[in-house]
From TrEMBL:
<dbReference type="Pfam" id="PF09995">
    <property type="entry name" value="MPAB_Lcp_cat"/>
</dbReference>
<protein>
    <recommendedName>
        <fullName>ER-bound oxygenase mpaB/mpaB'/Rubber oxygenase catalytic domain-containing protein</fullName>
    </recommendedName>
</protein>
<dbReference type="GO" id="GO:0016491">
    <property type="term" value="F:oxidoreductase activity"/>
</dbReference>
<dbReference type="InterPro" id="IPR037473">
    <property type="entry name" value="Lcp-like"/>
</dbReference>
<dbReference type="InterPro" id="IPR018713">
    <property type="entry name" value="MPAB/Lcp_cat_dom"/>
</dbReference>
<feature type="domain" description="ER-bound oxygenase mpaB/mpaB'/Rubber oxygenase catalytic">
    <location>
        <begin position="156"/>
        <end position="346"/>
    </location>
</feature>
């Protein structure tokens, strides 16, 4: 097999320099105290061509040898009942579940709890952050989005895609969600196998996949960047919206996503422990990513127009207003240059809603107890998820 090496080919490009010298990248460095340089580049870059082979082997041995629904039921049994060394089951299944059922020595349940509490306490701000900063900002990295494009995610529609992301995020960020056999653990394993299934399908059916430039489909380095979105970028977004968090909550958030990453088959040494490490790792990864292309713009607009297509809100004027509020938050949270590249519409008074939200958050922070905010946040997030699942009943996860 051909062996590729990837250089930091975009490190002198205007989009890379703008982001790290004057945009959100600069803010991330100030926020985290990161020391950015390329001295560890060779340590990370091989992961651009590294994939979760354990997940791939299960898909080849279970999913590719029987009907999809039959295979899914079989995997569900292993998730819910566990797997032991003497079970008469495929070796690949044993290998994968031996890893996921093994609790790593570094796992700290108190930190998992703190991380989950921060996600819940952020309430609707958590969901705004995921959508208008993490997801939308991710569309600016052209190669990262190639698997979405070739698997025709656009045809599936943004409502469905958002519903699946929300379903996963909510279920892995509740109390005790990641205990073996619990709901979050189940979501992590199923998501891992969906990634493997997509990757093997791309390799089989999409002959024009440019491995040298794009990396392997859904490779380990891209996975690291995605999960830094759920930790570092998410945390930065909450701060931008006027939320505060304790040291334990911050540590807990990184710990939570490190463990989710472990369950998903991302190599442990790629998952950062704190915001400083995360920013330094992210800096290296962004140097192999070009900025938005026409596919990025299509994905961004599909997400923006999700509010208009989604039947959760009954009236058209409500949907238009929601779209406007998301546009305001996108401009507030992302760099202007990124918004221009993604062709986010410019709207009047775009800072009014996010700045008002920031002021209200600061007051809310001082007047409502942490426990009450966690409880309310959990309830409100579950309600949003319930609404989404109601309108997309045939989610891949169910």
């Amino acid at each position: 097999m051909e062996r590729f090496t990837v250089p930091p080919r975009f490190k002198d490009s205007p989009h890379f320099k703008d982001f790290w010298e004057s945009g959100n990248g600069k803010q991330l460095i100030e926020f985290s105290g990161a020391e950015i340089n390329f001295k560890d580049f060779e340590k990370f870059s091989p992961y651009f061509y590294h994939v979760d082979e354990a997940g791939d082997d299960v898909v080849k041995e279970v999913y590719f040898t029987k009907k999809f629904q039959e295979a899914s039921k079989e995997i569900e049994q292993y998730i819910r009942n566990g797997v032991s060394e003497n079970d008469p089951i495929p070796e690949s299944v044993k290998k994968l579940f031996t890893q996921t059922q093994h609790i790593p020595e570094w796992l700290d349940h108190n930190l998992l709890k703190s991380g989950a509490e921060l996600c819940m306490r952020g309430n609707i701000d958590s969901l705004i952050s995921l959508r208008d900063y993490c997801l939308m900002g991710g569309y600016d990295y052209a190669y990262l989005n190639k698997p979405l494009i070739v698997t025709e995610a656009l045809k599936k529609g943004a409502v469905k895609r958002l519903s699946e992301t929300l379903d996963f995020w909510v279920n892995v960020t509740r109390y005790n969600a990641l205990e073996i056999h619990a709901k979050g653990y189940e979501f992590a394993i199923k998501t891992r196998l969906i990634h493997s299934y997509a990757r093997l399908s791309i390799k089989k059916h999409y002959k024009d996949w440019d491995t040298e430039n794009w990396g392997e489909p859904i490779n380990s380095w891209d996975m690291m960047a995605t999960y830094i979105g759920f930790s570092l970028v998410f945390l930065h977004s909450l701060q931008k919206l006027g939320n505060t968090f304790s040291e334990d909550e911050e540590k807990g958030l990184f710990h939570l996503w490190k463990y989710v990453g472990y369950l998903l088959g991302i190599p442990e040494n790629l998952m950062p422990d704190n915001k400083k490490q995360a920013t330094e790792y992210f800096y290296l990864w962004t140097s192999v990513q070009p900025s938005s292309d026409k596919d990025s713009v299509l994905l961004a607009h599909s997400l923006l127009n999700e509010s208009l297509e989604n039947p959760i809100l009954k009236f058209q004027f409500q949907r238009k207003n929601l779209r406007y509020l998301h546009i305001c938050c996108t401009w507030f949270l992302l760099d202007d240059e990124v918004c221009k590249r993604l062709q986010i519409p410019d709207v009047p008074n775009k800072n009014l809603f996010p700045v008002t939200k920031k002021v209200i958050n600061k007051i809310y922070d001082k007047t409502v107890s942490r426990e009450a905010r966690i409880k309310k946040g959990n309830k409100d997030q579950l309600k949003v998820l319930e609404d989404y699942l109601r309108v997309t009943k045939n989610s891949n996860f169910h």
